[in-house]
Amino acid sequence: MPQQRTGDDAVISGVGLTPFSRDAGLGALDLQATAAYQALDDAGLLARDVDTVIAGYATTVNHIMPANVLAEYLGARPARAFGMSVGGATGLAMVAEAARLMRAGVATHVLVVGGENRASGQSRDQAIATLAQVGHASHEVVLGANIPAYYALLASEYLARFGLSRADLAPLAVQMRAHAVSHPGAQFRTPITVQDVLDAPPIAEPLGLLDCCPMSDGAAAVVVSRAPASPSGRASVRIAGLGQANLHQHVSEADFGAFGAGESSAAALAEAGTGVGELDILGVYDSFTITLAILLEEIGIVAPGTAGRRASEGLFAADGRYPLNLHGGLLSYGHSGVAGGMAHLVEMVTQLRGEAGARQLADLPRKGLLHADGGVLSAHVSVVLEGAPAEASRGDRA
Prior knowledge:
alpha/beta, 11 strands, 12 helices, nine-stranded mixed beta sheet, two-stranded antiparallel sheet
């Protein structure tokens, strides 16, 4: 198992997150700037202190140089600025690149930003058509497939393979909503039940409305600094392990038994010198209930076919063994493109610092695993974060 890195490690020194909503009243660049300034303030930095800016794509902005435009807007003059686009995995992929710049001794402070007015800046049909392009141009898109349809295919296969029904996925949506209730920035904060999920309008059989994340306006940002730098004087959170995997792009080419989450998370955990049994908190991409189920199982948090049942048993609750997406995740906090996945990271950093207020875990977590995917479980990125030492581990794998 690889040795833990020291000395030139990267830390998260600042975070920023806007509320997510149907209409923020701001354009993509203004949303990005709002989150960026929050993260810079949190880190105790000014825009001119940043030597690298990395920005994610935005479906509502037709510009090929997103980081350069944002840097100019913020008043930053970075030595490096570049954009990135790997779907829902973009946020963690940008953080991973920032960490590698730190480890290489190239950068000192990297500003990572994602955000857009995905809900208000385009029509629903425009958004659906744009996102559908992750499908195979000749085998999938031409047949009229879209993102919910791709994931419905995965859900149908999954439910049939394990002899399950829609009700077996519903507890995952219920748990995400339960977490969102206490976060003032969440798009949806009204509690729901399994029956509510089953009664919701159908979107793509077997997925209903509450099995699917919404489209949202919002933004998120983080500052990655070279350890032990923490200009603000507050505790930093160390990036202890990184992992990535890209086994396919199109769902028609995927191996439904191994999408890449297992390889990616295993690499990140190995680099951090830890295992799933030592994790205190999770942030896992949840664009659909089926996404969350497959990722939790492939990572090895729970046995295959059991994610929904384990959610109903409280495994992922705030007082459960594996507190998961305590801000409400994509399913309830909302999904604003690149910022959607980054919100998981902001929540985890906030929890590891002990600054989550009413959402704060009773026992301060020390280690957490973040995982995101882009496309249709295509691009996988995993990040292990470490905060202050804990008195004891939470125990072995459930």
